[in-house]
Each structure stands twice: as C-alpha cells, then as structure tokens.
C-alpha cells in the first residue's frame, strides 16, 4: 500500500513545515466503474448526482462511469466531435439540471434530468442537437466552473496554453449572474498585478465567501510556477475581487519530497469539502494535495494507485465522503479512476442534497433568503395489503391527489418568488 505524506504549511507562499507519514491512500475503483475503459486520455470533468453516482466527460461525451449513460432513461450525451466543441467539465445542480462546460464552444450546455437537452436560439448553434445554458465568445474556454450554494452565481476559469504565458493575458476568471444573465470578467489589470497566468481548477469555500483558482506559468514551453489564488466574494454582488496567493504548490510539494517541478506538474481540477479542505489534482504526477484553507500548517499529499496523471475529482458515494479521482493511466492513453475515503463530505454533493426540487433531500444549511425551495410534505403511504379493496384503493388515490395539490402549491409559490428558468 502506498503511504501518504502529511506535512505542515507555516505560511501561504513560504513552506518550512516538518513532513510526517500517514496511512491515507487512494486505490483503484475501476471495478465499480466499468465505463472508465471507454473514456480515453481526454477524461475530465468529474461530477456526481444527488445519489453520489460518478459521471465524467471526455472531449465528446458526458456519461455515467457505471452505466455508460448520462441518464438511466436516455442515451449518453454526445458532442458534435468537431473543432467547435470540447467537453471539459460538468456539474449537477438542484435548479439548473446538469451543466457541461465546453472549452472550445465558449459555453456551458444544460441537460435536463430526464435526458432531454434545453434548446435555445443562439445563431450559429441553431443546427446543433442542443444549445448552451450560457455562451460567451469572450471566454478563453471555460476549462472548469463552480456554482454557489444558492445556485445564483457561476464562476468560470480558462486558459490559453502558450509556450510563454503572460499574467492577465493567458488566463481568465469570469462571473455569471444566473438571475440576470450578465457576465463579468475579472479585470486583466487585477489578474496581471496579482501574477495570475493560466487558470484551471476552481472552487468556492463552503460558506461561499472565497473563490480558489489555480495558476500555471509557462516559460519556453516549461511550467515554471504553479500557485493557488484566493479571491474574496463581494457579498452584495457575488463578484470575485482582491486575489491573493495562498499556496505555492512547487514549494509545498518540494518540502514534502515530491519532485513536482522536475516532472512538470500542472494543477488541474479542484474540489472542496464542507470543512474547508481543498483537494487539488496534480497533473503529471500520480497524486492529489489536500490543503486546509482554515487550519494553517495542515496539508496531505495523497498518492494514487492507478491514475498517473489526474485531471479531475469529485466527492460522491452514499455518504458523500468518497473522493473519486479520474485521469490518465500510466500508459497515458487510457483513463483510470481511483477512490480515496475521506471522513468529511464534499461541498458540491452537500449542496446538491440541500432542500431543493423534489428528490434532492434536505439539509440544515440555509441558502440565501428567497432562493430556497420550501421543504416538501412527505407523500402518503401507498403501501398496503397485496389485495386491497376498492374502497382502500380509492382512499389511497384520494390521499395521493391531495398530496399532489399541496406540492403544486409549494412549486407555484417558489416559481413565483424565485424562478431561475426566467433568466
């Protein structure tokens, strides 16, 4: 069994902590996800539904790694497979169904839970089988994206991979207000002054107060610097501001004895748990970094058993505490998946199980006022004897119809007060 290395971080960009051994590790989960063998080297965008079932994208497909479909009732979602589209990310939501990031299409697709795909008129996309939830040709990609707990704000990262990058030019961070349909880019001067280059992994803190984004700097076709930046989220507008460096990844990993710089490690996907632990895939080396955003000097390097170049990750499973990591195998041609058993559930699946549209579950976490879906009354018990009388059947039918009427009133009120489909 591989041994994980736990080590301290005494300052954001300067690391002097001692290195300690730990017995945490990630092991192969290929037996649980037979479709992993069909995904190929472009596997990315891991996500889970509210049941904790694992999905992912490659450049042309979004599908379940267990069943090979994007929904049990509908065949997998397939992109056009041309130079105008490249699936790179995905997220399940309570209010906006499934969102799939298209790096070359400068857009995010939307797929309904029942397998149908939302259609909207967007000019050059009119002939496609489906059209975007959002589209903005000014986006560099998006590469990855995250959404706040109330599902009113979307944050996107992107990059232009060039031999030598310039801060503020070859990476971008965008904010999308879902309710108003407005886009806003973090100003290039802000990115330049902070020293932010190519942007990839992105996620929010559990309380939505901070946004974390990776940055990779190239010089003469070599990655020379990899960092994580933290943006403050304006509580009034939801916009990211005031980026600061919080982790120098090459310095942190060198302190742990991991030769990340020498191997050209480039940080990829990131995911947060509900305690403020940020998990970062270390593409080009078989490992994931767990870094605490709340406890200084608390981090863990987690080696992977079969994923040699991790690209993305997400928490899932029945309790939401299993971290699934996807990426390329050692041959760099096939896709692999590993699993790491954590003791804290992930942020995304916890938010997905909030009180929301029927079937998503409940939580003690409170969304922004006015955006929460009201708690539903429980349906009547329709179980009974194997041979119910006509009177019993009629009574059960009456109770069920009464329950449906109550639910319809709840839905009508929520749609009147807060209706994301209007945007």
From TrEMBL:
<keyword id="KW-0732">Signal</keyword>
<dbReference type="InterPro" id="IPR051262">
    <property type="entry name" value="SMP-30/CGR1_Lactonase"/>
</dbReference>
<feature type="region of interest" description="Disordered">
    <location>
        <begin position="351"/>
        <end position="396"/>
    </location>
</feature>
<dbReference type="InterPro" id="IPR013658">
    <property type="entry name" value="SGL"/>
</dbReference>
<feature type="signal peptide">
    <location>
        <begin position="1"/>
        <end position="17"/>
    </location>
</feature>
<feature type="domain" description="SMP-30/Gluconolactonase/LRE-like region">
    <location>
        <begin position="125"/>
        <end position="325"/>
    </location>
</feature>
<dbReference type="GO" id="GO:0016787">
    <property type="term" value="F:hydrolase activity"/>
</dbReference>
<keyword id="KW-0378">Hydrolase</keyword>
<protein>
    <recommendedName>
        <fullName>SMP-30/Gluconolactonase/LRE-like region domain-containing protein</fullName>
    </recommendedName>
</protein>
<dbReference type="InterPro" id="IPR011042">
    <property type="entry name" value="6-blade_b-propeller_TolB-like"/>
</dbReference>
<dbReference type="Pfam" id="PF08450">
    <property type="entry name" value="SGL"/>
</dbReference>
